[in-house]
Structure formats: structure tokens, C-alpha cells
Amino acid sequence: MLNKARTALAAVLAVGALTATACSGGGTAETESGIPLVNEGALTVCSNVPFEPFEYVGDDGEYTGFDMDLTREIAAGMGLELEVQNASFDGLQSGTVLAANQCDLIAAAVTITPEREKNLAFSDPYYDSLQSLLVSSESKAKSLEDMAGKKIGIQQGTTGETYARDKAPSDTEVIAYQTDAELFQALQAGNIDAVLQDLPVNLGHTDGDAFTIAATFPTGEVYGLAMKKDGSEELVKEVNSQLAAMRENGKYTELYNKYFTE
Prior knowledge:
Helix content is 30%, strand content 25%. It is built from ten helices and 14 strands. The protein is elongated and about 60 Å long.
């Protein structure tokens, strides 16, 4: 995601006391324009938390982040409330949550790939992503080649994992973790020498001056909001319309500047 397979650990985070509500799974409600919805009066979004700054739990106990604010604006533009359901990333990228009518839309920093497009319909791209290498500030590493004989941590099932396994030196050990939280904890504990994942997420883990971005890798990745492959044509059009309106009225830029730095 940034293809992330952020899974079960995160699923416990927000069940119950947050702004999310359990989805009915009915899929019988509709907007005034006839777009089918899982829950009446709401755009129900599946995500995977935490993946800051895209989706995480704020100090007030509410879901927040770029993806969350973006979809909240889309829902408002459609005259709907936003409901959020936390799910494993495997269930998101595979489309399982959509097939089970758990949600209308997936917002989880999901990279658009040909493989995923076989099972999912995507909105227009809303974010361009770089991969990056996060290391201790004491490390002398400046490139992926410097990881020869060392350990790189990645999130399982992500484009970061694909990049690391394809590009890292052959004697680099690539170790998969289920969540971003586990990944960074492993780096802090010295169990791995570097983390390879999306740049904005790694920037959030510099921890003052304790860690630093050793290198960035332009991969041409873009994120999209995902919906059912079949039967969501009108929803895709409406989401794209809302994204276009946000770019035109400046709301997209406002949200982007809120969460990202150059």
C-alpha cells in the first residue's frame, strides 16, 4: 500500500467504544439516487487501523487520518453519515469484506494493482506513494544495497514486501509482520535493521532523531478507494465525483496539508 496486510491485532483496537459501528450486512438500503448501501443513511467504510497518518485512533478515541477524513467528506457530499468498521487487511485487499456486505467502500491506503483490479473496482487515484527505508540514526545504511546480510522488516502482503523481496540483496533476510505497530516495535527492539514501507508511515516513526529515512524508492504506486467489482458502478461514479469536487474546492489540498509534509 502501500499494499498492506495489516491484520488481526488492529481489529481489536476500535471495536466498541469508537465512532465505528458494526455493519448490518444487509445491503438493502439505498441513497436517494438509488445507490445500494449496507446501512441506511450511512456510507460504511472498512479500514485497517493503525496505519498513521492514513487511519488511526486519535486522542479523542475517534477514527482519524487522511483516509478517514477524506471518506468523511465524501459521505457528507452524498448526504450520508460515515460509519467505520475495522478489518484485517487481507480481508480488504481480497474484497472479502465487500462480498460479505460488511461495508460499501474500502479506505485503507490500498495500492491499485492489476491483481487487485481482478476482484475490486477502484476510484480514481487519490494519493501517490513512495516506498522508503527506515533505519536507526546510528546506521550507516544509505541504500537498499547496504542491507546485504541484514534484516529488513515489512508488512505481510504489501507492495513494500514485494519490493523488498524483488530488490534487496540476496543475503538480506526479509521478515514479515502483520501490523505496522509490530513492525516498528521490532525495529525499536533491534530485532530488525530496517523497515521498508510507505514513506508517510515511516516518517511518522522517526521518533525525534532516533530513526531516519535512509532512502526512498519511486515505484509509481497510487492509492484508490475500493468497492465491489460488480454492482458498484454508480457508487464508483459518485465517489469519483466527490473526489473531483474536493480537488476543485480546495478541500483535498486542505486535508493533504493537514497530514503530510514535503
